[in-house]
Amino acid sequence: MADVNRGNRPLSPHLQVYRPQLTSITSILTRITGIALLAGAVLVVWWFLAAASGPEYFAFADGVITSWIGDLVMFGSVWALWYHTLAGVRHLVWDTGRGFDLTTATQMAWGVIIGSVALAIFTVVVI
Prior knowledge:
The structure is a single chain. By secondary structure, the protein is mainly alpha-helical. It has one domain: Fumarate reductase/succinate dehydrogenase, transmembrane subunit (3 helical TM bundles of succinate and fumarate reductases). Helix content is about 75%, strand content about 0%. The chain contains four helices and no strands. α3 packs antiparallel against α4. The mean pLDDT is about 90.
């Protein structure tokens, strides 16, 4: 039978007990970028709907998206797309049973981070 008199100890480990690791941060960031991609997609759909609504409303929506804050959001969306894609490839590698040792997992985490930044800059500059 479980000891019900545990005092003030937590029942499970909490964030103050463990130091965040690169692999856990990249895993959490994968989920965050997935949600951010949805927000970026809604913004693009709004832009398309504004284009179909008429020239005045499209001018407003286009002004928002091509402003400096809109450019920042769109660049963030491009980065999130690349990050989420590379993290998905990392998970596909893990699904084969490879890359679970600490050295390889850390290298793959850095690859996702550096690769996503490089590919986002390449996408914005070239396209």
